[in-house]
Design goal:
13 strands, 20% strand, elongated
Length: 300
């Protein structure tokens, strides 16, 4: 049996190579083949190398191949095929949209019925998928604010879609369910946040009444480059940094970051930090921010 370019093996191809249904069932029972969707398989060696997004991508491709109607990968499944950042997003179901078809939901598949004008459909990896602007809007209609903004920020950061195109996609989708949530999410998006943690931090700052920071501020002393920081408040010369998991993978990188932070403080800047855990107790981060501002005020 030879997998196709996506790593999938169809039952038809397997039987054409001389395998029987009984043999396929036996290979699946032994774990040598993994059934992706009915009639589509992949080798265990491939599946063992894939993360959840990789497995979802494979499942979405298999689902389009076995769907009787012309289907377009959409919503969070389209976000996966576009390679967008996701944060803890539920990937249990593959999402397909069938223009003019009938919607249905199973344990592994959600088929949406909606109009898809030609500009809202593109091709990724040989598969029909909703274009980035429609994908972001569809995700924002379906997901909560945190998950939607992480996806939208990633799309904007890629430079393959603009805020103007997202707003235009909102208008085309104005009568669809969840459009109010989508408008709020798009209004909160920014391509300047460089990771899901930074996107969530920005949302928490808005929630806790922080003054608006400058994102990805480049700091210089004269013409000398000093640093580029995640968040910056010029009034207090205050730097905020989100420490993502795995950011300091070695003692050397940790030491380098400590030296960088010492340099910032030596230049008269205040620095405060937070981690993933702090995103769910952000009131403590607000207290750190307020103390840092007070220190800065006393130095004046």
């Amino acid at each position: 049996m030879h997998p196709d370019r996506h790593g999938l093996i169809t039952r038809t191809a397997a039987m054409g190579a001389g395998y029987t249904n009984t043999e396929l069932q036996r290979l699946c029972a032994r774990g040598e083949l993994i059934r992706i969707v009915p009639g589509m398989y992949a080798q265990r060696e491939l599946c063992s190398t894939l993360d959840p997004q990789g497995m979802h991508r494979l499942t979405a491709i298999a689902a389009t191949a076995t769907n009787a109607e012309a289907a377009v990968v959409s919503h969070v499944s389209a976000a996966v095929l576009h390679g967008l950042d996701l944060w803890n997003t539920d990937l249990h179901r593959v999402h397909l949209t069938i223009p003019g078809g009938k919607g249905r939901t199973t344990s592994r598949l959600h088929v949406h019925s909606a109009s898809l004008p030609a500009p809202f459909v593109t091709v990724e990896q040989g598969i029909s998928v909703t274009a980035l602007d429609r994908t972001v809007v569809d995700c924002a209609r379906l997901l909560d604010l945190d998950h939607a903004v992480v996806i939208g920020d990633s799309a904007l950061r890629s430079k393959k879609v603009s805020m103007d195109r997202l707003r235009a996609a909102l208008e085309v989708s104005a009568r669809m369910n969840g459009i109010g949530a989508a408008r709020r999410a798009v209004a909160a998006m920014s391509g300047l946040s460089e990771s899901p943690g930074e996107s969530l931090s920005r949302l928490r700052m808005k929630q806790y009444g922080f003054p608006d920071p400058v994102l990805q501020q480049v700091l210089r002393v004269g013409t000398e480059f000093l640093a580029r920081v995640d968040f910056y408040w010029k009034r207090w010369r205050l730097v905020g940094e989100f420490d993502g998991m795995g950011k300091y993978s070695t003692g050397q990188t940790l030491a380098q970051e400590k030296l960088r932070e010492d340099e910032l403080r030596d230049r008269g800047l205040e620095v405060f930090r937070w981690t993933w855990k702090d995103l769910w107790q952000f009131g403590k981060v607000r207290e750190r921010f307020d103390r840092a501002c007070a220190r800065a005020e006393r130095r004046r």
